[in-house]
Amino acid sequence: MAIWFSDVPLDTINERGAQCANGTLGIELLETGDDYLKGRMPVDERTRQPAGVLHGGASVLFAETLASWAAAHVVDPAQFHCVGQEINANHIRAVSEGWVYGIAKPVHIGRSSQVWEVRITSEAGKLVCISRVTMAVLAVPNRYY
């Protein structure tokens, strides 16, 4: 059974991300499954640190991007919106070129919070980073007091 409140429009999400950090770093959302959201990010001059490998901060931004979009699509957007509350990341392996792929899966989907695990892997399928992202689920403000 799928966790999504409604369809996850990947083309629309990618278009919205094109003019912000997502687009600047080349992040693309690729697919959804019943319980995951998958994307990719290039390892190039935009995402490497001076030592020539993927910057840990770029990995964290990638993880939060995936978890944020996933979180937003498991709630009713007319009633709720989700914001990042906490993120941690363990950087496991260096990557110097190509693409990294991230998959966000829920650990907990509750009424007031969500916890997502994001596993980032190399093109060879080796674990590069594992992150846990906590999202706060907030009520959409009533604008008609």
UniProtKB/TrEMBL annotation:
Task: Tell me the domain of life.
Answer: Bacteria
Q: Which SUPFAM superfamilies does the UniProt entry name for this protein?
A: Thioesterase/thiol ester dehydrase-isomerase (SSF54637)
Task: Kindly give the CDD domains that the UniProt entry links to this protein.
Answer: PaaI_thioesterase
PANTHER family in UniProt: 1,4-DIHYDROXY-2-NAPHTHOYL-COA THIOESTERASE 1 (PTHR43240:SF5)
Q: Which family does it belong to?
A: Belongs to the thioesterase PaaI family.
Keywords from UniProt, A to Z, are: Hydrolase
Q: Which residues form the Thioesterase domain?
A: 52-129
What organism is the protein native to? Giesbergeria anulus
- Cellular compartments per GO CC: cytosol
Q: Which InterPro entries match?
A: HotDog_dom_sf, PAAI_dom, Thioestr_dom
Q: Pfam families, per this entry?
A: 4HBT
**Name of the protein in its database record:** 1,4-dihydroxy-2-naphthoyl-CoA hydrolase
MF annotations from Gene Ontology: 1,4-dihydroxy-2-naphthoyl-CoA thioesterase activity
Q: In the UniProt record, does the keyword ATP-binding occur? A: no
